[in-house]
Design goal:
Elements: H1 10-17, E1 20-21, H2 28-31, H3 36-39, E2 42-43, H4 51-65, H5 71-84, H6 103-125, H7 129-134, E3 137-142, H8 147-151, H9 157-163, E4 175-178, H10 183-186, E5 203-208, H11 210-215, H12 229-235, H13 248-256, E6 260-262, E7 268-270, H14 293-310, E8 314-320, E9 324-328, H15 336-351, H16 357-370, E10 372-376, E11 380-385, E12 388-396, E13 399-411, H17 413-417
Parallel strand pairs: 1-2, 9-13
Antiparallel strand pairs: 3-4, 3-5, 6-7, 8-9, 10-11, 11-12, 12-13
Helix pairs in contact: 1-6, 4-5, 4-6, 5-6, 14-16, 15-16
Length: about 425
């Protein structure tokens, strides 16, 4: 039943702690394309890519849940973090939902997440079989008058209920259904069987007794409601250690949606977004699914040309069967393609042999695909071919990379001696 004021309880905090931080470039519409069961396992905010920002939001939300601070204090903490980073919203977005430091955006991040965790905690509490036996149904009720109500633009929840296939009982227009009825997920913007059902909806739930549910013809004396064991398993007190974005099962499940992919920095990006991992790995296969070096070289060559033209990273640029996907990172004078190009230009100026930086970069896909692995360690792989030596690293800017990264090149001793 509805509590007159929020109360901290263990289930809500456990549910919060069981979620993994998911930095992402996706907006609200794109996130809505991902299965709700996956999103429930992650804590995210549309287009927030900085894990430090996301961590600050998560920490203050947890403190609000625990009753340690109020929303105003939480909001100020998020804004102070952003100010400390030098964040400034573009003038045309200042003050709106796309301004990370706006009151509207920070309120949404706090109130939606805290409400979701409180209600998920209540949902877990309510899975006790004795409670389900006594209160097998629930009613959708208005619990808060948000601005939308004052403006006269509130959604027509009775119509939403009917359009989604909710039962119309003798108590209509009261919206009542059994707790395991699919209507609760269908009316939810977030795909959850508990509030909030939309941003700023102001709608909540109230328990309905078995006696009333029987009178409305929703259930008989002997029918039992099955507990939501999945929610208890995934978000109960023992769930914290089982879920993490680093968990390959969760990463694979998110990538399998086709909506986005993880870049090497752990940011979940749209598949076709600039800078996102490209699905070039299939280009390394022939029409029968067999690995083909010529296809891998073609994909690598295309990736080099794209990087040179756009001066940006190309993720999963090519594949080698015994190594896996390889990223071409643009980088700077000390690392990546810029580093390789600069070294090549310097040696061309010295030896006047025409082998400049771009020539070397265009040679790299062939060296990677056709070359021999001469050294393989935990952090790097060395490949040699036709007088060139390529080094692939499994780190980028000091952080682990999801794929191997084209890091540097050198001329083999044979090539050096022939100069």
């Amino acid at each position: 039943m509805i509590s007159p004021r929020p109360r901290p309880f263990r289930e809500a905090i456990d549910a919060h702690d069981a979620r993994a931080l998911l930095p992402t470039s996706l907006g609200t519409a794109d996130l809505a394309r991902i299965d709700a069961d996956l999103l429930r396992r992650a804590e995210f905010s549309a287009k927030v890519q900085d894990v430090r920002h996301l961590d600050r939001i998560s920490r203050v939300n947890r403190r609000v849940l625990a009753g340690e601070i109020d929303v105003a204090t939480a909001r100020l903490s998020i804004k102070q973090f952003l100010w400390s980073t030098g964040y400034q919203a573009p003038p045309e977005k200042a003050g709106g939902l796309e301004d990370f430091a706006s009151t509207r955006r920070t309120n949404l991040q706090i109130e939606t997440n805290v409400s979701m965790m409180r209600n998920l905690g209540a949902h877990i509490q309510g899975q006790d079989e004795a409670i389900l036996d006594m209160y097998p149904a629930q009613e959708l009720v208005r619990v808060t008058n948000f601005d939308a109500v004052d403006r006269g633009t509130a959604r027509d929840w009775n119509q939403i209920w009917l359009d989604a296939g909710g039962p119309r009982t003798e108590a209509w227009p009261r919206m009542i259904a059994l707790k395991d009825h699919p209507i609760w997920v269908k009316i939810s913007r977030f795909g959850n069987p508990y509030p909030p059902f939309d941003f700023g909806s102001g709608m909540g739930l109230e328990d309905v007794s078995r006696r009333e549910a029987m009178a409305l013809g929703l259930i008989d004396l002997h029918t039992r409601i099955e507990p939501d064991r999945e929610a208890v398993r995934d978000f109960g007190g023992d769930a914290q250690a089982t879920l993490a974005i680093e968990d390959p099962r969760l990463r694979a499940a998110l990538e399998a949606t086709g909506v986005g992919r993880f870049d090497p920095d752990g940011v979940y990006r749209l598949t076709d977004e600039p800078g996102a991992p490209l699905a070039n790995r299939e280009y390394a296969r022939d029409e029968n699914g067999r690995f083909a070096k010529t296809n891998a070289i073609a994909a690598g060559n295309a990736a080099v040309e794209k990087a040179l033209a756009t001066k940006t990273d190309v993720m999963s640029a090519m594949e080698r069967e015994d190594i896996g996907a390889i990223d071409f990172r643009w980088g700077n004078e000390r690392m990546g393609l810029v580093h390789i190009k600069a070294r090549g230009d310097a040696r061309a100026a010295k030896f006047q042999d025409g082998i400049d930086g771009e020539t070397i970069l265009r040679k790299m896909p062939t060296v990677i695909a056709e070359g021999t692995v001469t050294q393989r360690g935990s952090r790097s792989i060395t490949i040699e071919h036709d007088g060139y030596r390529v080094v692939l690293a499994n780190q980028w800017k000091g952080k682990p990379s999801a794929h191997w990264v084209l890091s540097s090149y050198d001329l083999s001793e044979q090539k050096k001696s022939s100069r």
